[in-house]
Amino acid sequence: MPDAKVLIVDDDRNICELLRLYLQKDGFDIAIANDGEEAIELNESFKPNLILLDVMMPKLDGWQVCRELRKTSDVPIIMLTAKGEIFDKILGLELGADDYISKPFDTKEVIARIKAVLRRTTDNSKNKTQEVKYDKLIINMTNFVLIVNGKQIDTPPKELELIYHLASNPNRVYTRDQLLDEVWGFDYYGDSRTVDVHVKRLREKLENVSDEWSLRTVWGVGYKFEVKSK
Length: 230
Description:
There is one protein chain. The chain has eight helices and twelve strands. The strands form three sheets. It has a five-stranded parallel beta sheet, with helices on both faces. The protein is of the alpha/beta class.
């Protein structure tokens, strides 16, 4: 994806320069921030297509930056964390991150993850309008917009892709592994709890909106977008 802009946010300057070297070699336009406050400022001025965001940083940590960015921006975020605990990964996803990579990492994996996220968020714009509509609900993947009860709801790209996938196949039950494969893609390294986190966040946005449809759990199996027959 030549000319895509990536903002690297890490207080370790050696890591930043290493990532800059490899990403520029792969055709990406790079900006670097070494603390959380600078990251928020560069997001406004540089307008990246994706942010690589470290967790442990001075001034504002990665969680605070992610939370702040999600108030106004849906830019894809990949968290970089030295901690391997699942809690840290789930926290990042709950705050709106799209993916996570644990340190130490392989630069080839980082590039593959970046390309996978950018591919998911840009391929749809090349196609004809992709939209599904239900009572009080519009999911538009061309403009990456979720409209609930006539109001546009800020939604991270991965959540939007998940609800679009389910709503495009009403009443079909998907296992968590199927959703990981079909929504996150073959090059995703997460686990099934990732799906649960995103469904939880979607429910907060969609619960009790309409009696005609709902995002349902099929216990012991997975999830479905249930539509009542008329």
